[in-house]
Amino acid sequence: MDIGIIGLGHMGQAMARSLLRGGHQVSVWNRSRDKAEPLRAAGAHVADALVDACRGDAVITMLSDDDAVEQVVCGPHGVLDALEPNRVIHVSMSTISPALVRCLAERHGERNQSFLSAPVLGRPAAAEQGELFVLAAGDADLVDVMRPAFDSLGQHTFVIGDTPEAANLVKVACNALVATIIDAVGETLALAIKAGIAPKAFLDVVMTTALGSPLYQPYGEPILHRRFEPGFRLPLALKDMELVLATGKELVVPMPIVSLLRDHLLEAIAAGDGDLDWAAMSLVPQREAGLLH
User: Is the CB of residue 59 less than 8 Å from the CB of residue 83?
Assistant: First the structure.
């Protein structure tokens, strides 16, 4: 496939490389061009303008939050203005609010433009290896068209339904679940440490048994060694918890655990950890237990 990628943070760059290895033609564009240039050596075409990344079979947007997506998609000379009707598919893979995805679907529909939502589960390392989990929602025929790209990016594609925003609800709910586990690991690890149990012994048990999942296992080593190189920074995790809470409010679903996670993320950021990976949230219970100063 001939695919454009707009947004070249850690995930966007890794996804571009994975698509190139899968044999796809890839054009890349980023608001700051310096993030696009390293992909030229890997075989990507570096687009001079956003519109140049919107001329193939599909264009993927992988951006940080609702504001960034609105600016790039809906702003002047954005994706909405660049897409040809009924030809190029816009695939939103950003973790954004279901409400914005609903709006994007309506805006594209008004222009007879094809639109899918397909956020992913997995870290940049998984994206680099084509081992993400793709959550796709929208017209089934469009999902089928995109399967070669999704197969290059992920180990499995889940079709959530024909309503695009459903994929984003599932994505933020899954992120809330992962955050719950990170927080719980920090809390139970603090208990084990205070009891005199070696952290490695405890984490070997839980990461092999209760948390023996590819979604959870990558967090074991960073938590053990307190090495939190950013793959998914704490402020982005905070943004996702806010999205879950806003969606819960809209649907009248109380979410007390997610409210606590939001507060723990705020505590971690207030402690100066805002540039670290969200696994650093596991330090909050350890601080509360007096293990860190």
Answer: yes
